[in-house]
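Exercise (ungraded).
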Amino acid sequence: MTDDSGFCWIDFDNARGSTLLGHVDPGITEAVARAATGVAGSATGWSPYVDTVLERLHALCGGEAVGLFRSGTAALRAAALAVREATGRPLLLSCGYHGYDPMWYPSGTLLEPNADGVVDFYFDLGLLEELLGTPERVASVVVSPDHMHLSPDWYREVRRLCTRAGVVVVADEVKVGLRYGPTLSTAELLAPDVWAVAKGMANGHAVSAVGGPRALLRPLKEVSFTSFFEPTILAAADVTLRRVATGEPQQAVREAGERFLRHARKALADASLPVEIVGDGTFFQFVPASEELEEDFYRAADAEGLLFYEGDNQAVSAAFDDAVLTDAEQRFTRVCDRLSRHAGSGPVSEAARYRVAWNVMDGLREAERDREATEGWLARLLDD
Ligand SMILES: Cc1ncc(COP(=O)(O)O)c(C=O)c1O
């Protein structure tokens, strides 16, 4: 990307992980431009894209019923409230970010629901188990999967606890869905009853989707909104879903990311800089030993034109070909050179790992801890 001053950036933010295929992908641009001429229908009513987009989503993610929305936030609110209405149970046990809607704000008191009936368990399995002690009050457990700070066992345990309690699982795959492969990232581990996807389905265009059993999503049957049939957005989704169904862009992105990571880890080690990197080529995150180093790290990256999503997850796109990767690697080496005053500092502490994980998950990373430690970390991190 080139800014107004002519300075060239390499984008690791990619609209917060939405532009999997890269900015201005020719196939998407062409389909959107064509739809804008009106040949693919108008915003007033049905067009063939509605059916192909829904069919593609159904084929990739399953679900007897699939609904479309405009943002991840809207999809999650609709899904969670539909399940609550369908089950007739009052509580939503939540972990992770589900959008800007105030309904998800934590109550401020551990294990207490907020005014919207949402209780945050911050990815802590001990807290979840306690909350599932009264399953007849729980409409669903709503999880935003993270594959940088949680292991497969974490999801298996959530599935086990929810099956035992007879509670519905909603996977908020707005960020990770269709990104790790041509389906939900937790399809096998969590086997969610209801899912939501967004960022992986339209390369940054404003659409999201919810799917699941008819019985749980029935309250969404009559949902409609002004821009539901808008054809340029559906065109972007149609092309993106066709491409991600092959699994090829995800694989290319994963490999490009892995190559960058190999270089970055070596450059950091060669420069004796205490910065860990968690995750893999699909999504990864820097874990600097101190906040001071973190600040200098992102300033140095800015100076070298590496556009990182500060403090959050980095996501390369399919536009990272050999030339871009080589350029990015050279820039990253220069970032490390700029940080020489931090050489030999560190090491990366548990506190640094918890803090960085909190930035991306709004919750606690997976680690051994008892109830006292959980409360201690929460007091510290919620206070920051
Ligand atoms: C897991 C998750 N859920 C929901 C949302 C909200 O999506 P949107 O920003 O499209 O409203 C996001 C956004 O980053 C997200 O990562």
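Further reading is listed at the end of the chapter. For now, observe: The first strand starts at residue 10 and ends at 11. The pocket of pyridoxal-5'-phosphate is lined by residues 16, 71-73, 76, 96-99, 144, 172, 174-175, 198 (CB under 6 Å).
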